[in-house]
Amino acid sequence: MKSSPLIYLASRSPRRGELLGQIGVTFEVLPSDVDETVLPDESPEHYVLRLAREKAAVCVQRLAIQGMPPRPVLAADTTVCIDGMILGKPENDADAAAMLRRMSDRWHVVHTAIALADGGRVEASLSSTQVEVAPLTEAEIAAYIASGEPHDKAGSYGIQGLAGTFIRRIEGSYSGVMGLPVFETAQLLKKFGVHVL
């Protein structure tokens, strides 16, 4: 028998769903669409925290308007940052290749913010992880782009997929790089009285 959802997840990301399932949290997907434009002089950390909070707040408003059962809403946002520049999802293959070239043989930072909202209460947390990419050849970049994997991912790669072969090491949260830092998520859920495990 499947248990009823404990929370709403403001994301269509299958990876975030898998990570919630890993810690035993049942959920219902309630996607949120917010403007993801970076504000002038906005830091990457502020950017992801702001978007996570906005996504959660939008969903809480929808619940009230549509008369849906009230449950906490979990939202998340992930961005890749290198040289102070935010690398979002690639616009096309050329954009993905440019991002991968820029990260080749270097460290970058992946910031993932999570926000949990329930009525008027919103709390957020930030996970920042250093990631080192091995040197990439043009052939490797082309083959990776041809796989289709980079298309919907911040920074044009997914650590849990084929790109795992060129991630030399990380310092921080592997699940945070995937898009939902499990430790921080569990701590936030417990604060809201949501059973984990």
Q: Overview of this structure, please?
A:
The protein is an alpha/beta fold and about 200 residues long. The protein has a single domain, classed as Maf protein (Alpha-Beta Complex), CATH 3.90.950.10. Helices cover about 35% and strands about 25% of the residues. The chain has six helices and seven strands. Strands 1, 2, 3, 4, 5, 6 and 7 form a seven-stranded mixed beta sheet that branches. Strand 1, helix 1 and strand 2 form a beta-alpha-beta unit. The protein is elongated. The two termini are about 15 Å apart.
List the helices and strands and how they pair.
Blueprint: E1 7-9, H1 14-22, E2 27-29, H2 44-66, E3 73-82, E4 85-87, H3 93-103, E5 107-118, E6 121-133, H4 138-146, E7 167-171, H5 174-178, H6 182-191
Parallel strand pairs: 1-2, 1-3
Antiparallel strand pairs: 3-4, 3-5, 5-6, 6-7
Helix pairs in contact: 3-4
What is this structure, in a nutshell?
The protein is built from six helices and seven strands. It is α/β, with parallel strands linked by helices. Strands 1, 2, 3, 4, 5, 6 and 7 form a seven-stranded mixed β-sheet that branches.
